[in-house]
Amino acid sequence: MRRLTIAMLALLLLSLGSAAVMAQQTHLVQRGETLFRIATQYGVTVAEIAQANGMSEPYIIHFGNQLTIPVPGGAPAPAPGPDPAPAQPAGTATHTVQRGENLAVIAAQYNTNYIELARLNGIADPYILHVGQVLQVPAPAGTTAPPPAAEPAPAPQPATGTYTVQRGDSLATIAAKFNINYFELARLNGITNPDVLRVGQVLQVPGAPPPAPEPAPGQAPLGQAPPSTANVGGFELGGQVLSFAHPGHMKHARMTWVKRQVKWHGESAGSFQHMIDGAHAQGFKVLLSVIGDKNAIAGNPGGYYQSFASFLSQLARGGADAIEVWNEMNIDREWPAGHISGSNYVQMLSAAYHAIKSANPGTMVISGAPAPTGFFQGCGPNGSDDDCYMRQMAAAGAANVMDCVGIHYNAGIVPPDATSGAAVGSSGHYSWYLPRMMSLYRGFFPSKPLCITELGYLSGEGYGELPGGFAWASGNSVAEQAAWLAGAVHRTRGSGYVRMMIVWNVDATYWADDPQAGYAIVRPGGGCPACDSLRVAMGG
């Protein structure tokens, strides 16, 4: 974890470059489209579309949005006006989203709940709104709006059946089994909080439950996958360790993964075999986050990528269940200055992916997670903001050479469902908010799951005053750390697209300029309040 970049956020200035002289046309957003995909279709940049539509980062689009598309080589495009109000059904009014609002807050203003408000507006992810977005809302009491017309009869559906919630289920994963949106499933069952289910709860679902898949020959039953099938299955929880001294705490928290960092300087893979064997002996799957010598990259990039890939293949052959290829490669502390770019990294990732899969097809390949930052104000060879860097990776074809998208979130000073309100000067930046981070990264790679390989909340309780670069977390208590980690589990499990969440960290004791011990869930004295809350969040 490279937390110094968090302090850089205080210097954040979000800006867009000058617009080129362009004509314009319109595009209606379809399901599954991203701004990057649309920009590629029309031969323009994401920034040009964003500027033409008055969008600010993070760039969020929704199914049904109408976008102005600048067309190169034409007449100057007129300045965009505010989003037009959608046609207003009888019995409804409109609400323009203001800075700091979320769907739940808006729903409370109109005496409804956010499930209904999401349904009314066709919103697939209720945690993502943008300032200026126009929503349909129930008409306030006492208005002269005509009574609502009867809703049209729904399309014929299979007969309703039932499904009993199992350990590890989320509403999103259940909905996917029955080919239904999880907000519709919530509405069908009168659920007002889709993040909360209980084992044994009986849900109404369309049609009969699908049959359980038969395991392939030699494959363990679902939920008991051996290390060689680590890339198969649903959400799992793990922790990053420095000494692996508390496996009992980790098992109590229902962790099934342990993350270790490998720093390679030419050694054989056998030098690190004890990390793999030690995890397996304790009943854990092991994720190795592997970095090497950044200076060697600068000297001979192509040759180094191949040598590094060969080393990773040996780790895979030794039984590594997952490998994260490098770490925070968008900053010069991790990657050589002058060579920082997403396309350069994808060359390394491609070599690593093919070498790992040749050695052990069951080893999951996770892309290195960039450092979340807005310090660089774009992409440059000496440092890059993570959103810009991820765009470069996507354009270079990273989706074809990874199983999971690496992501880090460690700037938490608000609950994990918050999308605004951080008490810092750069509070508008997405990296303070877990839902916005998840949505942003998902948008770049919609066909790939996310692997949150570092997620932590810093608390100085029990240690003393935080060093200056981390003063933003001075108000965090250990109780909040425990509650927010549990909330992050609910958030990530419920998304339906997060494969794993690794808690940063379990057992660090270092407390100085880089207060790693403040992130540790095993606190001074040996207690682990977060282990109890995580256990509950994982189903007890």
What is the gist of this entry?
The chain is built from 17 helices and 16 strands. With 540 residues, it is α/β, with parallel strands linked by helices.
Question: Could you walk me through the main structural features you see in this protein, from its secondary elements to its overall organization?
Answer:
- The protein has helices at residues 4-8, 35-42, 46-52, 103-109, 114-121, 171-177, 182-188, 247-252, 273-281, 294-299, 301-317, 342-359, 386-395, 434-444, 478-495, 516-519, 529-537; strands at residues 22-28, 66-72, 92-96, 134-138, 160-164, 202-206, 236-240, 257-263, 285-291, 322-325, 364-367, 379-380, 383-384, 405-409, 450-455, 498-503.
- The strands form 5 sheets. An 8-stranded parallel β-sheet has the order 11-10-9-8-7-16-15-14. Strands 1-2 form a two-stranded antiparallel ribbon. It has a two-stranded antiparallel sheet with strand order 3-4.
- Helix 11 runs parallel beside helix 12, helix 12 crosses helix 13 and helix 15 runs parallel beside helix 17.
- The chain folds into 4 domains: 4-72, Membrane-bound Lytic Murein Transglycosylase D, Chain A, CATH 3.10.350; 92-138, LysM domain (Membrane-bound Lytic Murein Transglycosylase D, Chain A, Roll), CATH 3.10.350.10; 162-206, LysM domain (Membrane-bound Lytic Murein Transglycosylase D, Chain A, Roll); 229-537, Glycosidases (TIM Barrel, Alpha-Beta Barrel).
- It is an alpha/beta fold and 540 residues long.
